[in-house]
């Protein structure tokens, strides 16, 4: 299994798995064993061609390299499926922005170099999340991008602390606690700063706060972030980590976020710097 390479496509973006099959041909021609494990739609025969043999996630975990074909959501979902194990993940972007992907479809031949180990590992900070209700931990998760606490069409009150110091208290749509990797996602859309992805920081971003002059905060990674949901009562609020299935939050629930001992290894092929890539993806070049 030492030369095994896993291909994890999003079949709703890689139609008929054409790019995936091309990647398999390229790698097989160099003697690498490959397996295909679709990230979504594995039971949808309209999405998965009948001639494709589908592998499983336990096999994917044995691969020396995991190539993900899709957008950032596909990469996040793959990371969850392999339980955030320290495996090199190489993204080929078929998404809208694809900030986490290192290659575009036209650069697919470079997967041979990645298979040889000719890449730089970009290690990313991750976060551990706990949901506490009545002094009992009822939910835990680990995330690469962010944790979001938001109302379901309702204004909710939230208070956030950094260690034991209150950072903000407001009524609004919700709050985002992001990693640097997640700073180009929902956090950026909520007015948060763009942070170098290999930095280690927390970014706290209020969502549509009913406070004049509400600000974002960038904090050291050794801080413990605590967010309390207050005065929800008959309203509904939810907690989501990396966009995964939301967990309903009750009044006075507490969310605790801290730096995880885990890191994510995203492959960097060196085709563009973070700044050049971000510049292009945000369409500043032609503005």
What does this structure look like?
By secondary structure, the protein is mostly beta strands. 15% of the residues lie in helices and 37% in strands. The protein has 6 helices and 16 strands. It has a 6-stranded antiparallel sheet, with no helix packed on it. The longest helix has 11 residues, at 18-28. The protein is elongated, with a radius of gyration of 20 Å. 40% of the residues are buried. The mean pLDDT is 91.
Question: Describe the biggest sheet?
Answer: 6 strands, antiparallel
The fraction of residues assigned to DSSP E strands is 35-45%
Query: What global shape is seen?
Result: elongated
Distance between the termini: 48 Å
Give helix and strand order, one letter per element, not per position: EHEHEHEHEEEEEEHEEEEEEH
Fill in the keyword field for this structure.
single chain, 287 residues, mainly beta, 6-stranded antiparallel β-sheet, 6 helices, 15% helix, elongated
Strand-helix topology:
Blueprint: E1 4-9, H1 18-28, E2 33-36, H2 57-60, E3 65-70, H3 72-81, E4 89-93, H4 111-115, E5 120-133, E6 136-143, E7 146-151, E8 156-162, E9 165-172, E10 174-178, H5 186-189, E11 202-207, E12 217-219, E13 225-230, E14 237-241, E15 247-249, E16 254-268, H6 274-281
Parallel strand pairs: 1-2, 1-3, 3-4
Antiparallel strand pairs: 5-6, 5-16, 7-10, 7-14, 8-9, 8-13, 10-11, 11-12, 13-16, 14-15
């Amino acid at each position: 299994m030492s030369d095994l390479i896993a291909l994890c496509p999003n079949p709703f973006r890689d139609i008929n798995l054409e790019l995936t099959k091309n990647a398999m041909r390229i790698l097989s021609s160099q003697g690498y064993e490959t397996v295909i494990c679709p990230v979504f739609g594995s039971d949808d025969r309209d999405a998965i061609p009948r001639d494709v043999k589908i592998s499983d996630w336990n096999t994917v975990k044995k691969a020396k390299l995991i190539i993900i074909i899709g957008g950032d959501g596909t990469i996040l979902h793959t990371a969850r499926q392999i339980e955030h194990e320290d495996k090199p993940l190489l993204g080929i972007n078929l998404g809208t922005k694809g900030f986490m992907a290192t290659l575009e479809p036209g650069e697919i031949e470079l997967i041979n170099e990645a298979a040889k180990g000719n890449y730089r590992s970009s290690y990313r900070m991750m976060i551990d999340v706990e949901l506490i209700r009545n002094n009992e931990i009822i939910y835990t998760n680990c995330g690469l991008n962010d944790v979001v606490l938001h109302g379901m069409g309702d204004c909710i009150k939230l208070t956030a602390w950094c260690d034991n110091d209150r950072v903000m208290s407001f009524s609004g749509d919700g709050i985002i606690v992001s990693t640097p990797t997640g700073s180009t996602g929902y956090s950026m859309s909520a007015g948060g700063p763009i942070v170098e992805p290999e930095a280690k920081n927390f970014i706290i971003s209020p969502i549509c706060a009913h406070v004049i002059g509400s600000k974002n905060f960038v904090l050291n990674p050794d801080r413990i972030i605590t967010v309390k949901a207050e005065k929800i009562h008959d309203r509904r609020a939810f907690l989501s980590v990396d966009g995964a299935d939301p967990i309903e939050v009750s009044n006075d629930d507490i969310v605790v976020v801290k730096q995880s001992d885990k890191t994510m290894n995203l492959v960097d092929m060196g085709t563009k710097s973070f700044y050049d890539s971000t510049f292009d993806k945000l369409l500043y070049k032609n503005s």
